Amino acid sequence: MACCEPELDRQAPPAYRRALIAVLVINLLMFGVEALVGLFSGSRALRADALDFLGDAATYGLTLWALGQSLVWRTRAARIKGYSLLVLGLLVLGDSLVSLFHGVTPPGGMISAIGALALTANVTSLLLLVRYRDGDANIRSVWLCTRNDVIANLAVIGAGLLVLATGSRWPDPLVALGIAALFTHSAVAILRQANDEARAGRAPSVGCRGGD
């Protein structure tokens, strides 16, 4: 197919760049909101989701830089993202495990409300990026992160509702552990595709459509 020829790899539609800039701003704003609320409320789920937004913002920024670069540099950028997600996953895992033994019961209503705000932000990002969900590992990482964010937000909302209904703190760290698992899953998928593309010596361009 012409859209997958190596010489077209560097051509990214201007609309894709604009979409990346928009979701970058959205993610930085939501990182600030969730980090502050998570810190003051003691919610591990919100803190984990805040790190998710920060990781995504870094992913979008790195993707913007990598557009127009050679396959070698795009593959390197994808690997940086993959390893960064693994590090974030370990940070969330450690914070969640500490909370299992020394945590407090966070306000369930606040968790769900902020989770709903985060869900709105991520669904907006998802709609902006859905046209560009297929491509090389660098582009694919953007879609994977945003898609998984929606799943994480739904889990955060559920955790808040369970805390509110039961008065138990356990749903909050358990959801944080689930978010850590999402970090790891995305990191492995990105690194695997980056390694495959490095061996093959080529990658599909933005706009190639394929299976998820």
Automatic annotation (TrEMBL):
InterPro entries: Cation_efflux_TM, Cation_efflux_TMD_sf. Residues 20-194 form the Cation efflux protein transmembrane domain. It comes from the Bacteria. It is a multi-pass membrane protein. It holds the Pfam family Cation_efflux. It is found in: Membrane. The chain crosses the membrane at residues 20-41, 53-73, 85-104, 110-130, 150-168, 174-192. Keywords: Membrane, Transmembrane, Transmembrane helix. SUPFAM superfamilies: Cation efflux protein transmembrane domain-like. This is CDF family cobalt/cadmium/zinc transporter. It comes from Alloalcanivorax profundimaris. The lineage of its organism: Bacteria, Pseudomonadati, Pseudomonadota, Gammaproteobacteria, Oceanospirillales.
